[in-house]
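Researcher: I'm preparing a figure for a lab meeting and need a structural model of a single chain. I don't have an experimental structure, so a prediction will have to do for now. The sequence is pasted below. Please return the structure as tokens so I can convert it later.
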Amino acid sequence: MDHDHTHVLPADVANPREHSHTIAPAGRHLHAHAGHRKEIDRPVGERMSEAVALQGVCAGYFGRDVLDEISFEVAAGDFIGVIGPNGSGKSTLLKVIAGLLPVQCGSVRVFGRAPDSATRRMLGYVPQIESVNWSFPVTVFDAVLMGTYGRLGFFRRPSAADREAAHQALADVGMSEHADSQIAQLSGGQQQRVFIARSLVQHPKLLLLDEPIAGVDATTQHAIFTLLEKLQKAGATIIVTTHDLSCVAEWFDRVLCLNHRLIAFGPPSEVLNAQTLSATFGSHVLFGTAAS
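Model: Understood. Here is the structure written out token by token.
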């Protein structure tokens, strides 16, 4: 369905939150979305090997686009890293895929269909820990058990099987001994593991993680990525945003470089070069560190 949504320039918005710590978009972009294609022109049978597919997606907040005509496809079972400067749209991209933020134009497919209540039951979404109110009085176990509520719906209590799944998820992330602790008492790395466990209790086919290694030490980073690699080998598709380029070549099958627009998408060996990283982060990026 066509609409009259229009791009506006960052300069036209006072204190734009998404652009406050990043370089400006590559060029001028001000147009209506009415002529954009709405669907991915591919038979449904050919989509089944795709976990995620975006075509011509524009999305943002308060009338201003953060994502500018983004198109890419993620095969089922892939481990994808999304990199870009702060404010480049990484978090927005995950919200679009999860169906938490509507698109202004273009189309999104998750396992062959538009995001809806059915696709949300197939995915786990882990937001940035800074966006969570950690003062909420809840134990670690109860926080993980909340991951079953979306599947249960209203007025249904978790079953014994759900509780066992929560215990297993805590064991998977190495947090069983903290099950009865208040979540506010945990370190940042421990809190991140709890939120990953909360997503695992749903047995997701698709995992979306927003900066899961931000603010954690090297040992915790390795533990988190080792767990994610294990989940990938078990069949999960995983998309992770990160600002830490040192982990990109080691862990991800493919890397998506984002700065409001899609800069590049491919294997780390092809993407991590001076030209692409300069276009993504600006000329100040340390290429030697990123590519090592």
